[in-house]
Design a protein that fits this description.
Length: 320
């Protein structure tokens, strides 16, 4: 066989193998649970990342952990055991359900806002997302299965604590995507509003963005292979779900929060979701805030957005 043909075939084979190796690495690095890390509240790099806010975040996390909760374990739609905690706040008739972000936890993600909800009379439910903390599961699905887990939790909370409570869904980062994707499915009447802080539009888009920015990999070319791995090992697809599509038939109020300095989930993703959402909808932009830091960067502005949003939802409820 001609030398040049052999060389060309060799180059093609090596390129394909290299591509598959990169896709395999990216899949296991991105989607597979890291057992030891998944049970850590704070990671060694957090102090550097959070900078001047680290002590505030740590103090907020301590406050969350010091509360006395009802602990719950339920089996999700696909058999994965999930863990969550419910904080009763007297005889309150309103509950906020919190969903944390990717490889994170509610103690950290809601270290700022948790006390705000308690002080304003909310019962608070904290979910450990699948493949995180005390919930089971080996694969993180970027909101695809998590959004269905949310509905299992919704039914359980209503059945357990009564159907007379107003419920708000709140998520940060992947948790925001979780609550937004959950609007694809029929919601109970108890849902009064959604608060989505720095959520991404779709698994495909955020993964393409991360692959290019962090690994200098062409995410567009890798997506089909990565999606095949997800379908084989995780039984889910990266395609077909997005905030924009999910919100199409959702009629309840939605508050979007996002920092303009977010270099992980682009600010433009919340703007696109906001534009796609039905009225009533609200957007709170925090100048210069990095990923998940809006509440801490401009607490006054975000708390006002919370108050105005909740007041609106309650007035709408009273007018029904």
């Amino acid at each position: 066989m001609n030398f040049w043909i052999i060389l060309l075939i060799t180059i093609i084979v090596l390129t394909v193998l290299l591509f598959l190796a990169a896709a395999t690495f990216f899949f296991f690095y991105t989607f597979v649970r890291r057992e030891e890390e998944s049970r850590m509240i704070f990671k060694p790099e957090d102090e550097k990342y959070f900078g001047d806010f680290y002590k505030t975040i740590h103090g907020g996390a301590d406050y969350i952990m010091a509360q006395k909760y009802d602990e719950h374990r339920i089996k999700s739609f696909d058999g994965v055991m999930l863990f969550g905690r419910y904080l009763k706040n007297g005889d309150s008739k309103k509950t906020v359900m919190l969903f944390h972000g990717y490889r994170s936890c509610c103690e950290k993600d809601f270290s700022g806002s948790f006390k705000y909800y308690v002080d304003n009379g909310f019962n608070v439910f904290i979910a450990d997302q699948r493949a995180h903390e005390n919930s089971n599961g080996k694969i993180i699905t970027f909101g695809v299965k998590e959004s269905r887990d949310l509905h299992v939790w919704l039914k359980y909370i209503i059945d357990t604590y009564g159907d007379d409570k107003d419920i708000y869904l709140c998520g940060l980062s992947m948790g925001a995507a979780t609550v937004l994707f959950s609007t694809k499915y029929k919601m109970p009447e108890n849902i009064k509003g959604i608060i989505a802080d720095c959520g991404f539009d779709s698994p495909e888009k955020i993964l393409r963005n991360v692959a290019k920015k962090n690994f200098h990999i062409n995410g567009f070319l890798m997506m089909p292979t990565l999606n095949l791995f997800c379908m084989i090992f995780g039984r889910f697809s990266l395609y077909g779900i997005s905030s924009e599509k999910s919100l199409k038939n959702f009629k309840k109020p939605v508050l979007f929060i996002h920092g303009t300095g977010d270099d992980f989930v682009p600010y433009a993703m919340s703007v696109s979701a906001f534009e796609a959402a039905n009225e009533p909808k609200f957007l709170c932009s925090v100048d210069g805030a990095s990923h998940g830091m809006s509440y801490l960067v401009d607490t006054t502005k975000v708390q006002k957005a919370f108050k105005d949003f909740i007041d609106y939802c309650e007035s709408e409820n009273n007018n029904l």
